[in-house]
Amino acid sequence: MHAPIFQVDAFATRRFAGNPAAVVLLQNFLEDAVMQDIAAENNLAETAFLVPTDGNYHIRWFTPTVEVPLCGHATLASAAVVMERLEPACTHVVFHSASGPLPVSKGGKGYIMDFPARFSEPISAPPGLAEALGVVPLEVFSHPLNYLALLDNADTVRALSPDLAAIARLDRTGVIVTAPGDKMYDFVSRYFAPAKGIPEDPVTGGAHCMLTPYWAKKLGKTDFHAFQASRRGGEVICRLKQDRVELEGSCAFYLEGEMEI
Q1: 46 is catalytic
Q2: Has residue 109 got a pLDDT over 80?
Q3: Among the listed residues 78, 4, 22, the one whose alpha carbon sits nearest the alpha carbon of residue 258
Q4: Other C-beta atoms within 10 Å of 166: how many?
Q5: 186: closest CA among 133, 239, 148, 139?
Q6: Full-model pTM
Q7: pLDDT averaged over the chain?
Q8: Cα 117 from Cα 98, distance rounded (Å)
Q9: Helix and strand tally (H, E) in the chain?
Q10: Share of residues in the chain with pLDDT > 90 (%)
């Protein structure tokens, strides 16, 4: 069989920035092992698989090694594919997922995603975290999926060179590091998830679902201009809406074609 495939740089206003994601359009989901093989072949942080349903789409996301319950940048890329290529007149789409319905609309600087917020609790630093990061965090917060470590400033976040093998051994699938922003940003962050086959994710929607409520409580406001300070880097507009988070960003198309399975 053949299937359309797109590669899109998400949370980016130009190619070769932000976070690249593959988007594959199917009539029905393939066997899990086949979709996992496709994601491994693509060798990007995420591959999204879309299946049309009742005017919207079912969506699933795979890293090169595992399926994940939520992925922001690949959802953003999928919205761009739907609204710019598959249905150019469309301005709103709902992706049905393992994390519930995820509405995305055109607007602002690109597309606005409506995701569930990930609230976290303060904890003592778990064994091995400081050693893995190479720096002692000022605060540590926990969510069932990720740890969040507060560092002293944006320069420390940018310069961090963690022990990825040690991070992979922690009892969470990822570690977010963050600090107050510099330049025009309210906060900066980076995200490491080697246990999911992603040593460092360039720009991470799911991490900002945790970062947004964290910084809302810390700074006493709900709207943020954030920057994920990976090598590629990317800007994310974040808004806390009670138990939901709006994430806004742009996309740049890189590749469009057809794959053979």
Answers
A1: yes
A2: no
A3: 4
A4: 15
A5: 239
A6: 0.96
A7: 97
A8: 15
A9: 6, 18
A10: 98
What residues make up the domain containing 70? Answer: 2-115+247-260
CA torsion angle for 93, 97, 102, 107 (degrees, to 10)? -50
Q: What number of other Cβ atoms are within 10 A of residue 124's Cβ?
A: 8
| pLDDT score of 183 | 86
Total count of residues recorded for the chain: 261
CATH number for 59? 3.10.310.10
Q: Which of 31, 41, 46, 87 is catalytic?
A: 46
Please check whether residues 128 and 224 belong to one and the same domain: yes
- Do 46 and 101 lie in one domain? The reply is yes
* Long-range Cβ contact pairs of 118-122 (< 8 A, separation 24 or more): 118/143, 118/145, 118/146, 118/206, 118/209, 118/210, 118/213, 119/143, 119/210, 119/213, 120/148, 120/210, 120/213, 120/214
> Does one domain contain both 194 and 220?
yes
Name the pLDDT band for 243 (thresholds 50, 70, 90): very high
Judge if 80 and 57 occupy the same domain: yes
Question: What pLDDT, in 10s, does the model give residues 1-17?
Answer: 999 999 999 999 999 99
In terms of Cβ atoms closer than 10 Å to its own Cβ (0-12, 13-18, 19+), residue 24 is: buried
